[in-house]
Amino acid sequence: MDANKRGLLSIQNPFYLDYHRLTKILGVNIITTPSLQTFAQLQNLYLSEAINNNLTYYFWSHMDVAVHSHEEKEPFKSLYMRAVDVVRETQSPDYLKNEKGEKGEWGIQFFAYDWLSMVNVKTFSDLGGWDTMVGYYGTDCDMYSRLSMNNYHQPVQDAGMIYDVTTSLPDLETLYRRRPKKATTRDPQSNSSTTSSSSPNTAYLTSTEEDLRAGPGFLHLNTTLERIQQDKRDDKYRNSWQLRQNGGEGDPYYYDPDGFEKALQMTIEVGTKINEEKWGHRGCDIKKAGLKEGDQWRVDHDSSFD
Predict the structure, then answer these.
(1) Is the pLDDT of residue 187 over 60?
(2) According to the model, what pLDDT value does residue 257 have?
(3) For position 246, what pLDDT does the model report?
(4) At a CB cut-off of 8 Å and minimum separation 6, what does 306 contact?
(5) How far apart are CA 301 and CA 89, in angstroms?
(6) If 0-12 CB within 10 Å is exposed, 13-18 middle and 19+ buried, where does residue 220 land?
């Protein structure tokens, strides 16, 4: 509803959003929905907004990712500019033309799977959008399989480094990568000066000199993000980070966090079962299992149920 907009949620509420900072300081456009959305519903909201605004494509990203540019590649281009290059590529009259001069159509451009992706509005609309009966896990398998079944290309692109993370960086100086200031001290007896690095806790954020591109700070940032990403992969419940905030009791529209998590897991499980019944197959390899467009809800269980 409007609780975040009005500043009514406490900071430990799992649904808290710093509305003022995002809109007034960072200039982010926030679209308020009347209720929480499942993953599939949110995807259709993106698609609807794109259609209503006459967009031919749009980018979307997971919110639990960290991204940065390929600083080690020459000539240097930012992640943003590499993504713009992909947009320009897709708009070329010769894009996806085969040897016979027949032009193919694309559905989605993957940057590290769909952690960052570019969506073709017409293609997704023609296929009827996302299946909201499959709210979470499995709905991507359904959508992308249907794209493949209908011969829509799904190119894999590389715009930058994209990490799937489970927590924030413990030290933001790792992200901002300012060179440490040098502290100068004078020896009163020799009348000479010596220079040393400032305290690591204060040196970077008070410095205006940026770290070298692809320098030690870049390597340290990569190593840190890779470790956080691996920790998430090793976690039996990879989205356990969502349980860390459990405050908000007494706030408007409060929902018990533990109860919400139980209900969410039940909803995920039901959606997974729906997708399995829809295709008569367990797993994400729907097309490889020999299924095609039109088989939905018309086939018996295959051997994956054995």
Answers:
(1) no
(2) 87
(3) 83
(4) none
(5) 42
(6) middle
d(CA 115, CA 110): 8
* pTM recorded for the entire structure: 0.87
pLDDT, average across residues 44-70: 97
Dump strand ranges (E) for 152-260.
156-157, 161-164, 182-187, 192-197
Q: Under 8 Å CB-to-CB from 259, ≥6 apart: which residues?
A: none
**Number of residues that this document lists for the chain:** 306
Query: Position of tokens 């500019």?
Result: 81
Res 172: pLDDT: 82
Closest CA relative to residue 119, chosen from 74, 55, 37, 167: 55
Locate tokens 């281009």: which residue? 77
Which helix (H) or strand (E) covers residue 119, if one does? strand 116-120
Residue 65 and residue 44: Cα distance in Å, rounded?
21
Phi, psi of 192 (to 5 degrees): -115, 160
Alpha carbon distance 133, 270 (integer Å): 9
Give 139's contacts (C-beta < 8 A, 6+ positions apart). 39, 40, 43, 130, 131, 271, 275
